[in-house]
Design brief:
Elements: H1 3-6, H2 10-38, H3 44-56, E1 61-62, H4 63-70, H5 74-86, E2 90-95, E3 98-106, H6 108-128, H7 134-156
Antiparallel strand pairs: 1-3, 2-3
Helix pairs in contact: 4-5
Protein name: MarR family transcriptional regulator
Organism: Clostridium muellerianum
Domain HTH marR-type: 15-149
């Protein structure tokens, strides 16, 4: 091993390990949640879209707003909405105030499915972290928000 390798910054190794753990944990959480969604024949993205469209109520949500909230490109949100509309979960309607704009509105079938999933989702997600105390959850939440804010500010915002 050369001298340069021996003199690796301990703080850098710590950061590397921490980022690796964050990434690995995120992947594990995704796998666990995907198993849950699979039981309902939904993807995580479809569940998130159904949630946002459901919250928008009868007035619906424009596809551009839905895409922004989900951090999804316009092309991808169109494909997502088309798939969900073909399953009868949401309906595409023209925006009366702007004919170029399309809104997504939840259908009765979408409402029914969402209402049946939500209690199970809340129970499932609360069980995922039940080994943490409320104080640990609060601190973890604060740290994750801090990481998100700093990474976004320093590396993503133009």
């Amino acid at each position: 091993m050369d001298e340069e390798s021996k003199e690796l910054d301990v703080n850098n190794i710590s950061s590397l390990r921490l980022l690796g753990l964050i990434s690995k944990t995120s992947n594990i959480v995704q796998q666990v949640l995907n198993k849950f969604y699979k039981d309902f024949k939904l993807s995580e993205t479809q569940f998130a879209a159904l949630y946002l469209v459901y919250l928008a109520g009868e007035k619906g949500i424009t596809l551009s707003t839905l895409g922004e909230k989900m951090n999804v490109t316009r092309a991808n949100i169109t494909t997502l909405v088309d798939r969900m509309a073909s399953r009868g979960l949401i309906e595409r309607i023209s925006n009366e105030s702007d004919r170029r704009s399309i809104k997504a509105v939840v259908t009765d079938k979408g409402k029914e499915i969402f209402k049946s999933i939500l209690p199970q989702y809340e129970e499932f997600t609360s069980m995922l972290l039940n080994f943490l105390t409320e104080n640990e959850k609060q601190r973890f939440h604060e740290l994750l928000l801090k990481i998100q804010e700093e990474l976004t500010k320093n590396y993503l915002d133009s």
